[in-house]
Amino acid sequence: MHPSIFFRKPDKKYNIEFARQRGFGTLVVNSVPVPLISHIPFLFSEDGTILEFHLNLSNPIVKMLNGETEAVMVVSGGDAYISPDWYDVENQVPTWNYVAVHVSGVLKKLPSGELHNTLSRLSAEMENRLLPKTPWEIDKMDERVYEKLKRQIVPISMQISAIEGTWKLNQNKNESSRKGAAKGVRELQIGSDVNRIADLMEDLPGE
């Protein structure tokens, strides 16, 4: 998380909604000699206190889940290069704007009987975003193929202990400079999902 208070977003509502909409993150678990990392889709519980996802049985993280295992899910959004020329103010420096949310908590393996529900809810969450396309459902799969697939997957939950957000959107600049930078972001398109970042810069969340 960024150390500057300008860019920290303590309001859990915005951080959860951002992470929920993104639905994909980087799971990081401490290990020796280096952390274990997996890039995975996930699902929030209705009340925002639990993350659910699944990992392949061969994933090294699964082998660590014999007790309480601390982890962080890093959820990144758009990002964009910011040229100091766009501020129309002297003595500025280049920077990079972005949104990122860190979800921390304790991992545990769920009973295998819960795997079907986890997979069904995760696919439904994504498929419903594709409406009016008819949603894909697990029932469309051959049962034997599906059962073979399930034997290779482990359902996992994270009991969330903390959610922190960095929303680095030039909040430390005046409105004119910030919107000038947003205009530059739209025109130059250097970064990822830059139009979304420009939208946020022009209309700061919660302000």
From TrEMBL:
Protein name: Negative transcriptional regulator
Taxonomic placement: unclassified sequences, metagenomes, ecological metagenomes
SUPFAM superfamilies documented for this protein: FMN-binding split barrel
PANTHER family (alphabetical): PROTEASE SYNTHASE AND SPORULATION PROTEIN PAI 2
